[in-house]
Amino acid sequence: MSEAIAANRTILVVGGGISGLTTAIEAAEAGADVLLVERNPYLGGRVAQLNKYFPKLCPPSCGLEINFRRIKANPRVKVFTMTEVSGIAGEEGNFQVTLKTSPRYVNERCTACGKCAEACEAEVANPFNFGMDRMKAAYLPHDMAFPLRYVVDPSVLGTPDQKRIVDACAYGAVDFDMQARNVTLTVGSIVWATGWDPYEAGNLHAYGFGTFPNVITNMMIERLAAVGGPTKGRIVRPSDGKEAKNVAIIHCAGSRDEFHLPFCSRICCMAALKEAQFVREQYPDSKVTLYYIDIRALDTLEDFYVKVKNDPNVTFIKSKVAAIQQDEATGDLILQGENTTARERYLNRHDLVVLATGMNPTTAREKVPVEVVTDQYGFVAADSGRPGIHAAGCARGPLDVAAAVQQSTAAALKAIQSISRR
Ligand SMILES: Cc1cc2nc3c(=O)[nH]c(=O)nc-3n(C[C@H](O)[C@H](O)[C@H](O)COP(=O)(O)OP(=O)(O)OC[C@H]3O[C@@H](n4cnc5c(N)ncnc54)[C@H](O)[C@@H]3O)c2cc1C
Ligand code: SF4
Q1: 137: CA distance to ligand 1 center in Å?
Q2: Structural domains for the chain
Q3: Nearest atom (ligand 2) to Cα of 113
Q4: pLDDT tens-digit profile of 280-334?
Q5: Does ligand 2 have an atom closer than 6 angstroms to the CB of 147?
Q6: 22 and 409 in contact (C-beta within 8 Å)?
Q7: How far apart are CA 179 and CA 222, in angstroms?
Q8: CA distances from 257 to 31, 104, 326, 338, 357 (A)
Q9: Alpha carbon nearest to ligand 2 atom 4, residue
Q10: Chain centroid offset of residue 134 CA
Q11: Cβ-count burial of 182 within 10 angstroms (0-12 exposed, 13-18 middle, 19+ buried)?
Q12: Do 310 and 319 form a contact (C-beta atoms < 8 A)?
C-alpha cells in the first residue's frame, strides 16, 4: 500500500464527513495523493444522517453522491474506512502516522445482496438511527452507504451466527480471519476533519431525555423523518407510535449555557425551523411550538425564518423552558416556563418534544494524537501551532454544510502548500 504512494507529498485527511471528503477531493483534483481515513464503515459523516438540508429542503444524498463519484473516479484518493489514527510523529513534509483498522469481516467481493443479514439471527442496536431501532448483526450501515459493503458486528464471533453468515454468502465475501491491523505510513501534511458529536442530551436533567421516551433530540427527528429511518419517515412518538401532531422544539438545549455548551452552534435554529417544516408537511393539521431565546438566522437564511414564521400553525414562544414533566397516563409532556414577551407563566402540553442540542467538537472528547492548539471548547485553532497540521469543517468550529465545504477547500490549499514547501 505505502509503495504506491509517494512519501512526503501525500496528504492524510482524518474524518470522512462532508469536510474531509471535500478536502480530499479538492486536494486530489489539484494533483496531490490523499489518504482519507474514516472511523465509521461508511463515508459522509453526520450529513448522511440528515433527512433534508435547510433552507431548500433538498436531500443530502444528492451532494454526497456527487462526491462519492468524484472519489471513485480519482485514483489519487485511497479510502480507509473503520480506521483511526493512533499515532503521529515527525514534522511537516515528513510525518509518520500510524493507522489502526478494525476488521469489517466482509471483503471487497461483497455485492450487497443482503443474504448474510437474512441468515443472521442476532440483532444489535442501530447507531445510525441513534438506537431507535435494531438491525441484524450482519448489516449495511444505511441504504446509501459508501462503500456499498456489508459489515459484521464482532458480537457474532463464536456464536452459531458465524457459520450461518459464512454459509449464506455465495461470493466468499465473509472473512472471519480478518484482524485489526496497524500500519505506519509517511505523509507530508495532515488535515484533521473529525467533525462534531451531538451534545449529550442526558446531561440536561430538567428535560428528562432518556427517562421520558417522547423527549428526543434534533438528530433523532432527522432520522424519524427520513424514509430510510426507523419509522420509514413517519414522525411518530417513540412511546406508542402515535402520530406526533403537537410538537415542541426547544432551541439552545444546553447551548449558550456555561454548565453545558457555552457557545452558539449557529445551525441549530435553522435546523429547528427545518424540523418544524418536516412535521407541518407531514401532518397538515399539526401544530409546532418553538421555544427560543433568540432566532439566529444569518444572511439570506432570514427568508427561511420568515417563511416558517408566517405559518399560522407554528408558534414562537420566547422562553428558556425551565422543566419538563411527563403525564404518566398519556406519555404527553408538560413544559413549564415563562413567556418573556407576554410575561406569563405557562404549563404547555405537547405530545413530542425535540431538544435542539448543539455541536460538540469530537476533539473535545478525543484529543488529536499529537499536541495542537485548541480553543476553550476543544475546536482546533486556525493555526494549529504545528506546521503541516491543519483542521477543516466542524473540527474548527460549528458550521453549516456550505461553510464547512468552503473552509475545507481552504484547508486543502493549506495542505498543498505544506507538501509543496519541501
Ligand atoms: C440537528 C442538525 C441538523 C443539521 N442540518 C443541517 C442542514 O440542514 N444544512 C446544513 O447546511 N447543515 C446542517 N447541519 C450541520 C452539518 O451537520 C455540519 O455542517 C456537517 O456535519 C459538518 O461536516 P464535518 O465533516 O465537518 O463533520 P461530521 O459530519 O461530524 O463528519 C466528521 C467525520 O469524521 C469521522 N471521525 C470522527 N473522529 C474520527 C477519528 N478519530 N478518526 C477517523 N474518523 C473520525 C466521523 O465518523 C465523521 O464521519 C445540521 C446539524 C445539526 C446538529
Ligand atoms: S457479504 Fe456476501 S451475503 Fe452479505 S451482502 Fe455481501 S455478498 Fe451478500
Answers
A1: 25
A2: 2-102+180-197+360-420 (3.50.50.60), 115-168 (no CATH), 200-357 (3.50.50.60)
A3: 8
A4: 999 999 999 999 999 888 777 889 999 999 999 999 999 999 999 999 999 999 9
A5: no
A6: yes
A7: 35
A8: 45, 40, 24, 18, 11
A9: 116
A10: 19
A11: exposed
A12: no
For ligand 1, atom 37, the nearest C-alpha belongs to 194
Ligand closest to Cα of 57 equals 1
Rounded distance from Cα 301 to ligand 1 centre (Å): 20
Condensed to tens digits (0 to 9), the pLDDT of residues 144-178 reads: 999 999 999 999 999 999 999 999 999 999 999 99
Crossing angle, helix 301-309 and helix 268-282, to 10 degrees? 40
Which tens digit of pLDDT belongs to each residue from 184-239?
999 999 999 999 999 999 999 999 999 999 999 999 999 999 999 999 999 999 99
| Rounded distance between C-alpha atoms, residue 14 and residue 327, angstroms | 46
Sequence-distant (6+) residues with CB within 8 A of 148 are 112, 140
Exposure string for 315-332, b = 16+ CB within 10 A, e = fewer: ebbbbbbeebebeeeebb
Q: Which ligand is nearest to the CA of 23?
A: 1
Question: Which of 13, 21, 46, 296 is the pocket-test mutation for ligand 1 (most atoms within 8 Å of CB)?
Answer: 46
Nearest 5°: phi and psi at 72? -60, -35
Q: What are the cell numbers at 28?
A: 486530489
Q: Quick check: CB of 354 below 6 Å from ligand 1? A: no
Q: How far is the CA of 401 from the centre of ligand 1 (A)?
A: 8
201 CB burial (10 A radius; 0-12, 13-18, 19+): buried
Query: Is there an atom of ligand 1 within 6 Å of 24 CB?
Result: no
Cross-strand pairs, 182: 100
Is the C-beta atom of 394 inside 6 A of ligand 1? Answer: yes
Range name among 5-19, 121-135, 160-174 with the lowest pLDDT average = 5-19
